[in-house]
Amino acid sequence: MRQVTGSRVTGSKMCPESEKITGLIAATFTPLTSDGELNLEVIGQYVDFLLEKQSVRSVFVNGTTGEGCSLTLQERKQLAEWWCRQAKGKLDKVIVHVGCLSVKDSQELARHAASVGADAIAVISPSFFKPRNAEALQMFLKDVGAAAPQLPLYYYHLPSMTGLNLNVREVLEGIEKKVPSFRGLKFSGVDLRDLSQCVSYCRPRGWSVLYGVDEQLLGALPLGVNGAVGSTYNYAGFFMNQMLSAFEKGDLNLAQSLQFKLQDVLTFANSLGFDLAMNKQVMSLCSGLPMGPPRLPLLPWPSDSVQDVVKKLQQDLGACPK
Ligand SMILES: CC(=O)N[C@H](C=O)[C@@H](O)[C@H](O)[C@H](O)CO
Ligand SMILES: CC(=O)C(=O)O
């Protein structure tokens, strides 16, 4: 089940249907060797794992889950290239995150993503020096988009990490004039009013709004989001695809009970200190693929906490087969 059909736009002249991004999108982890170097060889198996075990057909590379901001530009380029190459003929979409603190670095990554055949780029706001208003953020996106004008550009809103609390709807107003390649959002905030206002702006233009808080995806679906990007779809993708199907069929009771189960797992994980490092260890155990350690400043967790989370995933979601 890939498409959230209820919220699909048909017949839009602004953006061809084939360009739209729908369904569950895994925000990929970055496989590292035990000495902290890229372990690119894992990516081929990773693609197959997502397709065959999770029924997940699109990826979001070098984002938060991929530790994008902890990687060098060279590493980010190698990852983008490997993901695009391994995904070819298999996955639907490869979205490459190119956000950086320096607009020049983002432009370089955007040009590179275009050169390796990415389907889209996403850009988070710089979060050391932050844009002081929506217009400043639009100008930043404009300069990044201009470096890869042929690639659909998504703004990545993640206020809990960036500390940027701009109204996203304001960022959208008139953006098509400044960023002609703009095609939508990855919205990882919890303000459902702002989310709705973004859907109402994006939908008539044929753009996609992808939701990014896995715990409450069910709250975003009836507001018209087109798909969802998240870390848990790496190992709970099969399970959450069932939630999407239940929602599409109008079986809200089932959809709710599935969403509650993912919430229970994440609430339990949070009580143990769940962060990207623990998440990455969970993925190694669930997939059998060697994701390796996180990169500093993140530190690995003792294996008993990780195993407790995996056990809960097994019991509650039937994920992570033994
Ligand atoms: C901050 C962060 O990494 N958010 C992810 C994507 O936006 C989510 O997929 C979360 O990992 C997920 O919702 C679990 O809290
Ligand atoms: C979850 C997500 O979208 C990210 O890791 O960037």
Keywords:
single chain, 322 residues, alpha/beta, TIM Barrel, 8-stranded parallel β-barrel, 13 helices, 8 strands, 44% helix, globular, binds 2-(acetylamino)-2-deoxy-D-mannose, binds pyruvic acid, N-acetylneuraminate lyase, Schiff_base-form_aldolases_CS, DapA-like, schiff base
Write the layout of secondary structure elements.
Elements: E1 23-27, H1 42-54, E2 58-61, H2 73-87, E3 93-97, H3 103-115, E4 120-124, H4 134-146, E5 153-157, H5 159-162, H6 168-172, H7 175-178, E6 182-187, H8 192-202, E7 208-211, H9 217-220, E8 227-230, H10 237-249, H11 252-271, H12 276-287, H13 303-317
Parallel strand pairs: 1-2, 1-8, 2-3, 3-4, 4-5, 5-6, 6-7, 7-8
EC number: 4.1.3.3
Subunit structure: Homotetramer.
Pathway: Amino-sugar metabolism; N-acetylneuraminate degradation
Q: What can you tell me about this protein's structure?
A:
Pyruvate binds at residues 65, 229. The structure is a single chain. The chain is an alpha/beta fold. It has one domain (5-251): Aldolase class I (TIM Barrel, Alpha-Beta Barrel). The protein contains 13 helices and eight strands. Strands 1-2-3-4-5-6-7-8 form an eight-stranded parallel barrel, surrounded by five helices. α2 (73-87) packs parallel to α3, α3 packs across α4 and α12 (276-287) packs across α13. The protein is globular, with a radius of gyration of 18 Å. Bound molecules: 2-(acetylamino)-2-deoxy-D-mannose and pyruvic acid. 2-(acetylamino)-2-deoxy-D-mannose binds at residues 27, 64-65, 158, 161, 188, 212-215, 230-232, 266.
